[in-house]
Fold this protein.
Amino acid sequence: MSEQNESNKHINLQKAYNLSSPEDNVDFYRGWAEDYDIDFAGVMDYILPYQVATQFIKLNGKGPVLDVGAGTGLLGIEISKFNRIEMHATDISEEMLSVAEKKGIYSKSIVGDLTKGLPILDNTYNGIVSSGTFTHGHVGPEALFEITRILSKGGLAVLSVNSVHWHSLGFDNVLEMLKETGLVANVTEVRIYGDKCESDTKDDTAYLLTLSA
Ligand SMILES: C[S@@+](CC[C@H](N)C(=O)[O-])C[C@H]1O[C@@H](n2cnc3c(N)ncnc32)[C@H](O)[C@@H]1O
């Protein structure tokens, strides 16, 4: 890896964590979409999409599936390696979604802001998955209400939440509220990056939040 690549990757990850509004996210990912798979996922040995996909398949998740904050479609690719199920993608960034569309794994793309409500009817999806979107500067715990609104009865959601973000934004409190509505929730901790990652963030972890409606 060249020194130039290494420093670009650090700058982009730091910028991503410092975003503070949905509009910031739109601007930032517009400029990163074409390079994201190589500049971030490849260089960092980013395994979080694989972790979410594995958990979803292990728990017998069913379609249709919505990938929330789908970005360039890395999570959809991982699920498609296990199972050919109907998958849709949603993201606030049109540019990220257009990179995902070229991979041919999602039958529908929906541009939308998860924090403001998605243009999707209640109880639509049997499966909802997400990797890397509930993190610093992106989406907080309030968006879990939107996830549960569009999850069908009997459905399964597997969502990654950055571990530091989980504690700083109080995901626990929102989870308690959701449990009172009858949802079953489980949390496990996983690594975000694989063994080839050489960054000082290589040991960062995420919680995989599993919600069964
Ligand atoms: C780190 S990327 C993760 C993309 C992909 N899931 C992955 O694991 O590679 C975060 C994604 O969240 C999206 N995002 C950020 N804020 C959002 C919001 N308010 N609503 C929907 N998507 C959002 C970004 O556009 C970006 O594609």
Q: What stands out?
A: The first helix runs from residue 3 to 17. The chain has one domain: 3-212.
